[in-house]
Amino acid sequence: FVSGIIPLGRTLAHRPAMASSSVLIKLLVVVGCAAAASAATLTVGGSSGWTLGQNYDTWASGQTFAVGDKLVFSFVGAHTVTEVNKNDYDNCAVASNSISSTSTSPATLDLAAAGMHYYICTISGHCAGGMKLAINVGSGSGSGSGSGTPPSTTPGSSGTPPATPSSP
């Protein structure tokens, strides 16, 4: 075998095509990784999860939320994750007109729209006991950390489309 000799069945014309295919594949991998890296998956409450006795305002203030991110509510026992409007959030209302609700853990919600989103646990006494979360979802890509915007205290409705549950 002599170095520099092209194997049988191959011509010099094959080499540029193979090289450009390799570059294209590498480029697609890089672009795919960048797109996947731009969306964050955030576990509400960190390692404690969605439970009584947590301060979710403090947790949210250390996060940045963006369209495309996923919120994961992990809990044990009887709890719900119910997206509500601001008035129901402020009053810990068990609303029949909730935006979305689940009682299955872990609950993964896609943040599909920018704006304020409000979540409560509808089990009696749980919302009043602190199981409520208000987040401001930005339109840019999220990183999962940074400075969250604290919820407004002005009464009214969020007016934002719901976060959509994603399949596990």
Automatic annotation (TrEMBL):
- Cellular component terms (Gene Ontology): plasma membrane
Question: Which residue ranges are recorded for the region named Disordered?
Answer: 139-168
Q: Where are the transmembrane segments?
A: none
Where does the secretion signal sit in this chain?
A: 1-39
Keyword presence, Ion transport: no
Q: Which domain of life is it from?
A: Bacteria
Keywords (alphabetical) are:
Glycoprotein, Metal-binding, Signal
The protein here is known as Phytocyanin family protein
